[in-house]
Structure formats: structure tokens, C-alpha cells
Amino acid sequence: MKMLLSVFLLALSVGANATPRTAEEALGAMHDEALKQLIDGNKRYVESKMNTCHESTAQLRTELAKGQKPFAIILSCSDSRVPPEIIFDKTLGELFVIRVAGNVVDPIILGSIEYAVEHLKTSLIVVLGHEKCGAVTAACQLKVKVKESKESKESRGYENSERKEGHASAEHGFDNISAILSQISPAVATVRRSSNKKDAEFVEEAIDENVRLVATNLRRRSKIIAEEVKIGKVRIVQAKYDLDDGQVTFFNNPVAPVVHEIATKHHTP
After folding, report:
1. Model-level pTM?
2. How far is CA 160 from the centre of its chain?
3. Which residue among 3, 80, 123, 153 has its CA within the 20 to 30 Å range from the CA of 115?
């Protein structure tokens, strides 16, 4: 992992130092620089050499009262152990942070990101998952319970009635929580089809897959984001935070091809 990060940093350094020749290259260099700021900040955090711990924000607050221009959008989990500003060693006005359990997307979250992209001109979007995510763990457990319940009813000769997996928790009064789990369940299903691993390893693979799914859904469910990505103005990157060592690892694999959903509807994948 450290070797991968070193190679990644070297590539970013080369890209940042090169003189861009076209508008496309200039945008790429801007994205590289924004990403490098996050990587460098996380390195300081891991090494307990944070800059923001010693900064005075009095003058900064006065300046920011005039307006904001964050250089990155961070879509992360609500988990109290994963505060983006701290783990990337950033201060007021630098990050546009959206936090929700399981770092999933819905129309409200998409609208928030679109605002930052269109009006604040923020060009880097980071989908940040994290180790031992409780929302993904719950989705994995629900998947197993639904499967076991279905098999139990079939073995007793009950009529098998199809239902959306997310509704299983609604029977116990968790309607709103089920809305979150239903967004994560496709990632869980993908991992279950491709892996025989169980328990902790299975959950971690589902967390990774959920990050990839969300990155794809950003473009699939938002024509604004999709268009900005297509013309090179916005870059979406995927990352995962390690609770134990504090390191953020950026994924290198591409997101799935985009097939737009109907603009007025936001279906569960």
C-alpha cells in the first residue's frame, strides 16, 4: 500500500510540475494539485504534524464571511471517527463536506454537490468510505438475514412473496434507516456474487464496492455532474480511510460506464 501511494504521489508531482499546454491539460493539472493537497494533508495527519492545529482563524473567518471557494468536495460517512477536515489537515473554507451514513447519495445530497460544482466551481469530488463502516456492516447483515428468512419460509412451505430488501428493516420500525441500507445493498450483492469471503473481509470488500457504486451514481443520477466530468472540468476520485493508522488510500480502478436515469426520478440501483 505504501509503495502504491509513493508511485501515486510521484505521478502527481510530475503532473503538477509540468507546464500544461492545453485547456484540458490545465484542468488535469488543477485536479492533480487539489488531490496532492489532500494526500499531503493526510500524510501530516498520520504523522501528527498537522498545520491547522497551530493556525489562528480570526482573520480567516473575516475573509470567509465574504464568500467561499473550497477546492474539493468530500462525500463521506457521518461516522464521528472520520472528520474530513481533520484527516486531511484542512481549515475553514477549504473543503465542501457532505456527510451521511454510508456515504450514499440521494436527490438532496446530489443537489448539494451540484451547488458546489456549478456555483462554487469546485472541481474535485472525493467519495470517501472508511474501514468498519457501520452502515455497510448493517447492509451486509441484513442481506444475510433476508436470505435466511426466505430460505426458512420456503423450507416450511410458505408462499414466497418478493419484496425489496431494504423494506426488511421497516418491519422493525426502521423505515428511514432502511432507505440508507437499500442504497448500499447493490454493492453488497455484487461482492457476495464475486467473493466467498465472510465476516470482516466480506464487509471491507462491500465498503470498497459501495465507494465505487456511489462514484458511479454521482454521474448516473446527475446530468450536471456527468457533463462536468465528461468535459474534464470535474474529476471524481474514490478513497477509503483506515481507522487504525489514519491513512487515506485512493483507489485506482475506474467507475462503471454511465447510463442516465430519468431526470425526475432517483431509483434505488
Report:
1. 0.79
2. 36
3. 80
